[in-house]
Each structure stands twice: as structure tokens, then as C-alpha cells.
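tool=predict chain=A
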Amino acid sequence: MSSAQKLLPEKGKPMVSYLGYIYTKEKSTTAKISFRYQNRDCKARCHTNLSMDIFLSQPTDHNHVPNPECIALIELNNQIKAQAATSDESTSSILHSALRTFPLNAASELPRTEIIMQTICRQRQTPAATFTDGLSDDLKKTYRAEDFLLYEEADVIIFSTKANLSTLKHSKHWLLMEHLKYAPMSFISCLRFMH
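tool=predict ok
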């Protein structure tokens, strides 16, 4: 019996690879798991034990050549997702560190950089909000531990440090730099002022 390489699930379905082919779980019993080739145009199937490390029946024949580059892409996806969920590194830093070890022969399978960066951003954990006031404590302070939440009411939230507010107070002109694209659902808009 041959050994299977277990891949972390993509979209919740367990996967195994063997000789450059990727199989996704089709069904399972109390004794085995049935896998089908990832591309449904091919009818190849195999069966593994419940721990997905040994084939109980060898994969059937394929009607195409293997694509081992896809395995490297799945492993890259899993690596950046895990790193993004547990790390405070910047998105570009996670992307560059993951791509450093990516095999060059699989580079043709890589999606655009923006797509990979979106994947990283989706894995980021949002800060837990306290239900008394709606904002978590880490959003109320700057990285220098200065108060950042200046005013909070049901309809209005003002973020600023006292030093920034003092600078605005002494400025002759204020400029509205931009109307931010994203605002919480309960707010109409977000504005950013500069002096």
C-alpha cells in the first residue's frame, strides 16, 4: 500500500495528493474515505484509511497528465492563511516571506498579487468588541498608548489625540482630505480632516 500526502482542506473538503494529482473527499464510511480527482472531467478515484495517510486502493487511471504545480499553490495558500491569522506582520511582509520559498516551476499557477493579498486580509482577526460601547480597548488607544477615542455617542464617534486636536485648533485652515469609502453600517459616512 502506498502513502498519500495529506493537504489541508480548501473550502472545507479534505484533500490528498499522489504523484502530482489532487483528490478531494467524496464520501466516507466507518472504515475508509473515498476521494475523487479534483477536476470532475476526470473519473479517477481512490480510497484511504480514516487518517488519510495510506491508500487502501490505488488511484484509478487518469485521462490527463499530472499538475504538481497545483500542490505547491495549495500549500502556499495554507501557509499564508495560517501566518495571517496568527501574525501581526504586514500583508506585504507575509506575501514576500511566503513567495521566497515558492518553487519557480509553479510560478505560472500563481494568481495576481492583489488576489493573494486579499486572501491574507480575509484571514485577519477583527478585534473583539465590548458590547457596552461597541469599540474594543485597542481601538481606543494609539500604539503609543495615547487616548485616541475623543468622543463617542450613538451617532457620532470622533477619533483624535489631544496633540492632533491642538494642532487643528491652532490652524487657520482645515481641509477635508477625503470621504472614506468604508463606514460602519450604522453610520452614514466617515470624514478625515487635515490641517
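The helical segments are 69-86, 91-100, 113-123, 162-169. The chain has three domains: 5-57, 69-123, 137-194.
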